[in-house]
Design brief:
Helix content is 49%, strand content 16%. It has 538 residues and is α+β, with helices and mostly antiparallel strands. The chain has 3 domains: 233 residues, Rhodopsin 7-helix transmembrane proteins (Rhopdopsin 7-helix transmembrane proteins), CATH 1.20.1070.10; 108 residues, 2-Layer Sandwich (Beta-Lactamase); 172 residues, Alpha-Beta Plaits (2-Layer Sandwich), CATH 3.30.70.
C-alpha cells in the first residue's frame, strides 16, 4: 500500500468504527428506539462495506482484491433499501413496510450478492476485474456487466426516493425537528453525489469515495442519535392531529427523556425548545408542579394508563389545574417503545367545582354560611359544648323594616343593606363564631364559650354598630340608617325551649327576637326571661 492511501484508509476505518459504536449503542437500548432494528442493520451493513473497501484498497494481489470485493457486497447492496426504510420510519410511513414489501426490497440485493459470489462462473455482474500496480500504489479496474447496471439503477432509485420523501415532508415537519430532517437529507445526498463522481471517473485514482463520505454521514448520525434522540419517534407520524391538539402531549423514551412535544405543551412549558429534546423531563416539570404527586415510572407491560387528577400547575405566577395521563406507546404485537404524557386542562372544571362547593355551604349574595350548613356546624358546636360543659350562645337577628327599604329604594338597595349588615358583623365577631344567613333579612350567629352576660354584651355591640354606621344611598340621596332586632338563647338553660337540639335553641332565639320586635325594634332580648328582668337596650 502506498502513502497516498493512508489518509483515505484512516477515514474509512473511522467511519467503520463509528458505525459499529452506533450499532452497539442502539442495540443495547433497542427497547427505547422505535426504528432500532433498521438503524442497527444500517450501521453494521455500513461497517462491513467500509472495512471491506479499506481492505480491498490495501490488498496486494488480485485474489485478495476479489475476496474483499465479495465481502463488501455483504453490506453495500443492502444499504440503499435499508436507508429508505429508515427514512420511512422517520417520516411515519412504516405502515407501508409490510413483510411482503420488505422481502421485495431485499430481493434485489440478495440476487446481487449471489451474482458477485459466483461472478467467476458467469461474469454477469463484473465482466472483468483487473489489478494495475505501480511502485507506490495500485488501481482496480472494474468492467461492469449487465446486472451491475441494474443494481446501480436500484441503488439510485432507493436513494433518490428517500430524498424525494424527505423533500415532500419538509413542510409537515415542525421546526424543532428540522435538524434531524437535515441530517437524514445530508446522509442521503452525500453518497448520491459521491456515486455520480465515481461513475464519472472524477475521483482521485478512480477510488470509490462512498466509504470516505460515510465517515461524514456516520458522524452526523451519531450526533443526531446521541444529542437529539433522532430514533426515538417518527415525528411526522403525529400528522396534523398531533399539532392541532388542544391538550398538551409529551412523548418520552423509557428513561423519561423528552422525545417529542406538541405546540400545546410548549404553551404550558415555556422552557420546551429544540435543545430540550433528549433531556430528562423531571427538571422541566419540577419548575411548574410538585413532582411528588407524579410517578411516570410505569412498569413494563402495564397497559392501564396512570391518571393524576387536579395536578396544580403554575406558569408565570398563574395557577392552573391539569389531569395528567401517563401510558406506553407500543407497536402492534411488540414491546413498549415510548411513553405518552397527555395533559388535559381542567382549570375551569376545578374552579367550577370550587364555586359549587362554596355555593353548597355559603349564601350566594353575602358569602356567609347558608342556613343548612350553619345548622350542621352549630349542631357540632352544641354537641361539643355539652361534652365539655361549656356555654353556647345563639344570636338571631333581622333588619328592621326591611320590606320598606325594598319598596322605597328597590331590591338593589335591599341587597346593599344586607351586605352592609354582614360587613359590620364581620368586624365585631370572633374567628370562632359561626355566622350564617338564616333566611331573607334574618341572620344567625353561634358563639361558643360565651356566658349569658357576654352574649348579651356581644349582641348589644353589634346592634349599636349597625345603627351607628349609616349606609350611603343611591345617587345623591341622604345616607340610609339601618337597625336590627336581636334574640339571644343560651344552650344549657333551664328553659324548655333551650333544652333540646339546635332547632329548639333556634326556636328559643326566634321567640326572643319576636319579643324584641314587639318591644319597638332595635333591641336585644334574652330567650324565656320574665319581662321585668329583661333589659331594654336602645
Amino acid at each position: 500500500m502506498g502513502t497516498p492511501y493512508s489518509a483515505i484508509l484512516t477515514l474509512m476505518v473511522t467511519a467503520g468504527v463509528i458505525n459499529i459504536i452506533m450499532g452497539i449503542y442502539v442495540l443495547s437500548n433497542r427497547s427505547k428506539q422505535a426504528m432500532a432494528r433498521t438503524f442497527i442493520a444500517m450501521c453494521f451493513l455500513s461497517a462491513i462495506y467500509v472495512f471491506g473497501s479499506a481492505l480491498e484498497l490495501s490488498a496486494g494481489t488480485l485474489k485478495e482484491v476479489k475476496f474483499w470485493i465479495t465481502v463488501e457486497y455483504f453490506g453495500m447492496p443492502f444499504l440503499p433499501p435499508v436507508s429508505l426504510m429508515l427514512i420511512m420510519h422517520f417520516l411515519g410511513l412504516e405502515r407501508f413496510l409490510t413483510w411482503r414489501m420488505r422481502y421485495l426490497m431485499y430481493l434485489m440485493p440478495l440476487i446481487t450478492l449471489l451474482l458477485v459470489i459466483t461472478n467467476d462462473l458467469h461474469h454477469f455482474y463484473y465482466r472483468s476485474i483487473e489489478l494495475q500496480t505501480s511502485a507506490d500504489m495500485h488501481k482496480v479496474e472494474l468492467n461492469a456487466g449487465p446486472w451491475y447496471i441494474i443494481q446501480g439503477g436500484y441503488t439510485f432509485g432507493c436513494m433518490i426516493g428517500g430524498v424525494v420523501l424527505l423533500s415532500l415532508y419538509w413542510n409537515r415537519m415542525r421546526s424543532s425537528y428540522r435538524l434531524q430532517h437535515i441530517t437524514m437529507f445530508i446522509g442521503l445526498l452525500l453518497p448520491i453525489i459521491g456515486d455520480f463522481l465515481y461513475l464519472g471517473n472524477l475521483t482521485p485514482a478512480g477510488i470509490d469515495p462512498i466509504p470516505v463520505v460515510m465517515a461524514i454521514t456516520a458522524a452526523l448520525y451519531m450526533w443526531g442519535l446521541v444529542s437529539k434522540g433522532m430514533l426515538n419517534v417518527a415525528p411526522v407520524a403525529r400528522d396534523t392531529l398531533f399539532e392541532s391538539m388542544n391538550d398538551a402531549v409529551l412523548v418520552l423514551d423509557r428513561s423519561n427523556r423528552l422525545v417529542d412535544f406538541n405546540p400545546a405543551a410548549a404553551e404550558i412549558l415555556p422552557e420546551l425548545t429544540t435543545s430540550a429534546l433528549g433531556q430528562a423531563i423531571e427538571p422541566l416539570l419540577g419548575l411548574h408542579t410538585d413532582l411528588s404527586a407524579l410517578d411516570f415510572d410505569t412498569e413494563a407491560g402495564e397497559d392501564i394508563p396512570r391518571i393524576y387528577d387536579e395536578v396544580h400547575w403554575t406558569v408565570n405566577e398563574q395557577s392552573y389545574y391539569y389531569q395528567i395521563r401517563s401510558s406506553f406507546i407500543r407497536k402492534k404485537g411488540g414491546p413498549e417503545t415510548s411513553k405518552l404524557i397527555v395533559m388535559i386542562d381542567i382549570t375551569e372544571r376545578v374552579r367550577l367545582q370550587e364555586q359549587l362547593r362554596v355555593l353548597a355551604y355559603h349564601d350566594g349574595l353575602t358569602g356567609i354560611f347558608n342556613r343548612l350548613h350553619f345548622i350542621h356546624l352549630s349542631e357540632a358546636l352544641l354537641h361539643q359544648a355539652a361534652e365539655q360543659e361549656e356555654p353556647l350562645a345563639l344570636m338571631l337577628f333581622d333588619i328592621d323594616h326591611f320590606k320598606q327599604i325594598n319598596d322605597a329604594y328597590g331590591h338593589d338597595m335591599g341587597d346593599r343593606a344586607l351586605l352592609h349588615v354582614v360587613d359590620v358583623c364581620r368586624q365585631l365577631l370572633r374567628p370562632e363564631d359561626v355566622f350564617g344567613r338564616y333566611g331573607g333579612e334574618e341572620f344567625v350567629v353561634a358563639m361558643p364559650g360565651l356566658s349569658r352576660e357576654e352574649a348579651m354584651a356581644a349582641a348589644q355591640r353589634i346592634r349599636s354598630e349597625i345603627a351607628a354606621q349609616s349606609m350611603a344611598a343611591a345617587g345623591s340621596g341622604p345616607p340610609l340608617s339601618v337597625t336590627a332586632s336581636f334574640g339571644v338563647a343560651m344552650a344549657g338553660m333551664s328553659c324548655k325551649e333551650a333544652g333540646g337540639g339546635i332547632n329548639q335553641l333556634l326556636k328559643a332565639a326566634d321567640n326572643a327576637l319576636y319579643e324584641a320586635k314587639n318591644s319597638g325594634r332595635n333591641t336585644v332580648r334574652l330567650a324565656d326571661m320574665e319581662p321585668t328582668k329583661q333589659a331594654l337596650l336602645r
